[in-house]
Amino acid sequence: MLERKRKLHIDRSFRLPAFLGMAMEPRVLTSSYYDTSEYLLAQYGISLRRRIERGRGVWQLTIPQGQDHVELEAAGGPGKLPATFMDLLFGVRRNQPLQLIAKLKTKRQTFRIHREQTPLADISIDQATTIQDGRRVGGFLELEVKLLSGADRDLDGITETLISAGARTKAFRPQLCQALGLPYPREPQPIDQASPPAEQLRRMLSNHVLHMLKNDPATRLGQDPEPLHQMRVATRRFRAQLQAVRTVLDADWVQSVRARVRWLGCLLGQVRDFDVMLATLREELEQLPESEQQASVHLLAQLEQDRAQAHDQLLDGLRSEDYLRLLDEMDTVFHGLPLREEPISFHTLAAQAFLKLRKAMKALPPHPSDTDWHRIRIRTKKARYIAELAAPTAGPGVSRFLTRAKKLQDLLGAYQDSVVIEQYLRRLSKNTRRFPVVFVLGQLVARFQMRRVELSQMVPSCWAKLKRCGKRVWLTALPTLTLVG
């Protein structure tokens, strides 16, 4: 269940406005929190606990999903962690055992707000006591607003009212992190312009690994396509930038890591393609006349079935020893890169990537094929990701270059999506004999062919802006950085 909530600081003098909600029966919750000895779950914003209320126990797992959190529940006694939760946590915890970290005893007073007869939100005031090794070691007060229905603007309005009454804003932190003073979440490392280039590279690569692992549990869960997309983007950036600096790193390590990242990227990409197809085709099919809606139901059902098979293949990969070995190899970037003593310039790498893109654009035939545009998309993506390496020290023009490179990449990405969708529709058409379905597939194929024509006509102007910007940023004399340990 996706949670929409806000947490606020309060002290003992805080009083809830009398008109804001109806008091509900007080509750006493005893929560046993589990994590690895290194608090790996907490580092990635995950909470695992067994909560007991009035003698009834339930396991609860909270994982990040974008800016929100998903809370899952599973039955089970205290002796064994739910298998479904262990599977979702496989990548984050690796093979490390989960153990009891702390207990929190919480006295909760909740006030429910209604809109007409419908519950809108719960305001809960928690007084938590932390217990470790049977001793009270701390405690805190916290106010939480949890939206039960309505829109985000309702949550914003209630929050503003509480702030006016004396509550203070705070960043979301799980109660375990507050109780034990743990950092939350594991933050991306800032790129310091004054640090050596090798350290800048290490931090950038480590941030990609953090982003990948943060989205790992929600990708396994599969309720929302965005975490999978973000996980795939992180792997693509990692692989592109590693490829760019491969000459200054240990060759065996680079070869092994890149091969496994490519393998993971392919598994993620297969599911992502189906997510894009589902979103795009749902929009297209809504425009069909009512007489053809039944055929669209058949098409979407087949697409969802194929997507489920691709997601199962992804899960098999994410449960494998190959994935664990990849994570172990990626851990290197948190401690230090296996460098050779060879100089390199981020600016030069970015300039070379831009020149390769410019050369590829010049070599395009008068009527580029789908394969031609796909190659340009890959060149654009590499130029963009490698430019990110130089961005911290290359001047203000790089930001404009990255923005325009993203626009071209998105444009060519939409073109490639149309290619993939058309290929899928043609395969379906060959394997079905139901005329209404074949008729609808034919209409969709024609639409995506026309869409590709329109998108290709937009490329020249988009490229012209990127080319001018690239010349100014990369092909003029700027200070270069040398990669040394």
Give an account of the 3D structure.
- This protein is an alpha+beta fold and 485 residues long.
- It has 16 helices and eleven strands.
- Strands 1, 2, 3, 4, 5, 6, 7, 8, 9, 10 and 11 form an eleven-stranded antiparallel β-sheet that branches.
- The two termini are 47 Å apart.
Fold blueprint:
Elements: E1 2-3, E2 5-9, E3 22-23, E4 27-35, H1 40-43, E5 47-53, E6 56-65, E7 68-74, H2 83-88, H3 90-93, E8 99-115, E9 118-132, E10 135-147, H4 152-164, E11 168-169, H5 175-180, H6 197-214, H7 216-221, H8 225-244, H9 251-285, H10 293-318, H11 321-330, H12 332-335, H13 346-362, H14 370-390, H15 397-430, H16 435-474
Antiparallel strand pairs: 1-7, 2-10, 2-11, 3-8, 4-5, 4-8, 5-6, 6-7, 8-9, 9-10
Helix pairs in contact: 6-8, 8-9, 8-14, 9-10, 9-11, 13-14, 13-16, 14-15, 15-16
Give the gist of this structure.
The protein has 16 helices and eleven strands. It has helices spanning 40-43, 83-88, 90-93, 152-164, 175-180, 197-214, 216-221, 225-244, 251-285, 293-318, 321-330, 332-335, 346-362, 370-390, 397-430, 435-474; strands at 2-3, 5-9, 22-23, 27-35, 47-53, 56-65, 68-74, 99-115, 118-132, 135-147, 168-169.
Number of helices: 16
How many distinct folded domains? Answer: 3
Reading the helices and strands in chain order gives: EEEEHEEEHHEEEHEHHHHHHHHHHHH
CATH class category label of the largest domain? Mainly Beta
| Relative strand content | 15-25%
Spans where pLDDT lies below 50 across 5 or more residues = 477-485
